[in-house]
Amino acid sequence: MKNWMDAFQASLEYIEDHLDGPLEMEAIASEAALSPFYYQRIFTALCGMSVGEYIRLRRMSEAAQELSGRQSSVMETALKYGYDSADSFARAFHRFHGISPSAAKKPGASLRSFAPMHIRITMEGGIMLDYRMTEKAPFTVFGIRRTFHTDTGYEKIPEFWNEWAFDPKGMKGMFGVCMDADGTDFDYWIADLYVPWQEIPEGCDTTVIPGGLWAQFTCRGPLPESLQKVNTEIWTEWLPSLRGYELAGNYSLEVYGPPAENPEDYLSYIWVPIRKLAQP
C-alpha cells in the first residue's frame, strides 16, 4: 500500500495525465485516498493554491508549448484544454502569458512556464503540535450558513465574518463549521451551541455535528494567523505522520474561545474528525 505522500503525489500525476481532458475532483481525490472535501483543503495547504488554480496554470503552460510549436490551431488548443470558445481561451491565455494565443504562434514569442508540482516533505526535528484525541457525542449548533467555492473560500470566509459582526443575530460566534456540499462547494456556518428551549433567531438554522472521535488542535495567538498556521501544520506535518488513524467525515470545526487581554494569549481550536483504522 502506498504511504500518504506517495498517494498524494499519485494524484498530481493523475492531473498531469488528464490535462487535455475532463478532470473530476472525485477522481483526483480518490488517487490520494481522500474525499474531495479534504483533498482540496490539504492541496491548498501543501501547494499554496487551490486545485482549480493549479490545473488552470498547468493547462495554460501546456497550451503555450503547443501553440509555440505551431502543432495546432488556437481553436483546437482551446477545446483540448477545456475552453468552449476561442474568446474565453484568449482572455485566460493573455492573463497568464501577457500575449494573445495567435501571438504565441509567432517565432520568438515570450511565454511563461508553470512546471508540474512534486510533493516532498522533509522532517527535520518535527513541529510540536498541541492536540488531544477526544470522543464526543453528537451535538447541534444553530447559526447562519453560506456556500463557498473551494477556489475562493479562504478569501471570502473572512468577509462573511465581517458581515456577521454588523448583524450577529444574538450569537457569540463560538464555531466556524465547514461541511462538504458537493465536493467542489462547501457550506460554512458561523454558529453557536443550540439550546432547545431558546428561540432560534430569524435567518438562522440548525445542523447536527456527528458524534465520534476528534483530534483537537490548540491555536494560540491573534486571528486569523494562528488558525492558518496550525491548519497548515495539521496537513503538512501531523497528517503525513499519523499512524493507526484516518480522516473521517467531510466536515471540520473551528472553535473560538473567550476574548483575551493580550492577543498573543488568545486561544482557538481546530477539530478534525478521525477514526481508528481496522486491524488487518
Explained architecture:
This protein has 280 residues and is of the alpha+beta class. The protein folds into two domains: 4-104, Arc Repressor Mutant, subunit A (Orthogonal Bundle), CATH 1.10.10; 131-276, Multidrug-efflux Transporter 1 Regulator Bmrr, Chain A (Alpha-Beta Barrel), CATH 3.20.80.10. Helix content is 36%, strand content 23%. The chain is built from nine helices and nine strands. The protein has helices spanning 4-17, 25-31, 36-47, 51-68, 74-80, 86-97, 101-104, 153-166, 225-238; strands at residues 131-136, 139-149, 175-180, 185-193, 205-209, 212-220, 245-247, 251-256, 267-276. Strands 1, 2, 3, 4, 5, 6, 7, 8 and 9 form a nine-stranded antiparallel sheet that branches. Helix 2 (25-31) crosses helix 3 (36-47). The two termini are 12 Å apart.
Distance between the termini: 12 Å
CATH topology of the largest domain: the name is: Multidrug-efflux Transporter 1 Regulator Bmrr, Chain A
Task: Return the average pLDDT rounded to an integer.
Answer: 87
Structural class: alpha+beta
What is the name of the CATH architecture of the largest domain?
A: Alpha-Beta Barrel
User: Helix content range of the residues, please?
Assistant: 25-40%
Biggest pleated sheet: 9 strands, antiparallel
Rg, Cα atoms, Å: 22 Å
Which shape, going by the Cα principal axes?
elongated
List the quaternary state of the chains. Answer: single chain
Corresponding CATH superfamily of the largest domain: Regulatory factor, effector binding domain
Total tally of structural domains: 2
Number of helices: 9
The helix/strand series, from N terminus to C terminus, equals: HHHHHHHEEHEEEEHEEE
Outline the low-pLDDT stretches.
none
Strand composition percent: 15-25%
Number of strands: 9
CATH class of the largest domain, anyone?
Alpha Beta
